[in-house]
Design a protein that fits this description.
The protein has 377 residues and is an alpha/beta fold. The protein is 40% helix and 14% strand. The structure holds pyridoxal-5'-phosphate.
Length: 377
């Protein structure tokens, strides 16, 4: 179906085309080109970490990062209210995802429930910063990780540029992952990055990302010297074309965030007048970049009504997220079932994500608002 108003549209300008064209026209180094390190320096600077390493997706980045922290068995605490990749990366690394509950404002992990899920086998916690907003209790979760000597990896796939108490998301944990998939704040279609202050993790990530290869002689494509491979690894590298594109997108991230925020604040103002639904909570001392615009209904049946009504009008809406622990793979392989996480299961039935993108027009927003009002107002 062709949506009249899709859930997202990519924001791009002509300089994005120019930066990609430059790499293509060079006729070489479409892999392992200088734009990759350049992007990594820029991203590290933007987030405020010592190191950043690019990957061909957020999922491969998260998988590699867990391995770099030596997490290949034991348990890792994750929310179930997330994209499946958060839990899949844990399974791919060889550990068991243990799902914890979330709170209903930022949809971030609930620290009390996280504590209850800690066992002798727990190795790490992966809080998710949902939809462009910070996980409200990230400080408390960081303290728990410190107290129990657990690795803290932030899944910040959706929240590049978001802050809490003036501190950038992605600087709370031992490392953090951001995604550049096409519906994210800035994008190259598919891509991801790990940000960290730890040199040892950074060095391990380099090996895991590229076949376990030691590249002291320069890069693989530029040298005839023999190279050593000291462990097994993947090819999780981002292409140079993608790196050039993310780099170009990063130049306008402030503008993109500003555009998204203006739309979100307009929707907040108008939709908050409608009874039976809550607009996204902008927490005190936090800065939300609104990668998703998710509303919460008091009543599940209203959510279904609105979803169907808007779908019929060609306005795309979607549930972000359905509980991961109830997906077939997790039920079959780990024995999870309905009732394991009552709060997550309940919230998941009441949320609906509406279209939001930098070029969403006032006319389109008013159409969405009026359509909701007409249906349940
Ligand atoms: C919370 C979360 N974690 C992980 C991912 C995986 O990132 P990617 O799609 O870049 O592999 C995503 C992106 O879709 C996400 O939203």
């Amino acid at each position: 179906m062709k949506w009249k108003i899709p859930l997202f549209k990519i924001y791009w300008e002509n300089d994005d085309i120019e930066s990609v064209t430059k790499v293509i026209q060079r006729g070489t180094y479409w892999a392992i080109g200088p734009e990759i390190e350049q992007l990594e320096t820029e991203i590290a600077q933007y987030i405020g970490t010592k190191y950043a390493l690019s990957f061909n997706s957020g999922t491969s980045a998260l998988h590699a990062d867990l391995l770099a922290h030596n997490i290949n068995d034991g348990e890792v605490i994750v929310p179930s209210f997330t994209f499946i990749a958060t839990a899949n990366a844990v399974v791919l690394a060889g550990a068991k995802p243990v799902f914890a509950e979330i709170e209903g404002e930022s949809y971030g992990l609930d620290p009390e429930n996280v504590k209850e899920k800690i066992t002798k086998k727990t190795k790490a916690i992966i809080p998710v910063h949902y939809g462009g907003g910070p996980c409200k209790e990230i400080e408390a979760i960081r303290e728990i990780a410190e107290d129990y000597k657990l690795i803290l990896v932030e899944d910040a796939a959706e929240s590049l540029g978001s802050k809490i108490n003036g501190k950038m998301i992605g600087t709370f944990g031992h490392s953090s992952m951001f995604s550049f998939c096409q519906n994210k704040i800035i994008t190259c279609g598919e891509g991801g990055v790990i940000a960290t202050d730890q040199e040892d993790v950074y060095q391990k990530l380099k090996l895991i990302r590229s076949h376990g290869r030691v590249e002291t002689q320069g890069d693989y494509f530029s040298t005839t010297e023999e190279m050593d491979y000291v462990q097994v690894g993947y090819n999780y590298r981002m292409t140079t074309i993608s790196a050039a594109l993310v780099s170009s997108q990063l130049k306008k991230i402030d503008k993109i965030i500003d555009m998204r925020r203006k739309k979100a604040l307009y929707l907040n103002e108008k939709l908050s007048k409608i009874k039976g639904l809550k607009t996204p909570v902008e927490l005190k001392n936090s800065y939300n970049v609104y990668q998703l615009y998710t509303i919460q209904f008091d009543d599940e049946s209203d959510k279904d009504k609105i979803h169907n009504h808007l779908t019929n009008l060609g306005i795309m809406t979607k549930v972000y997220f359905e509980p991961v622990h109830l997906k077939t793979f997790y039920c079959k392989n780990f024995g999870y079932h309905k009732g394991n996480l009552p709060k997550t299961e309940e919230l998941s039935k009441k949320v609906l994500t509406l279209p939001l993108y930098p070029t969403l027009s006032n006319e389109e927003m008013n159409y969405i608002i009026d359509s909701i009002e007409n249906c349940i107002g």
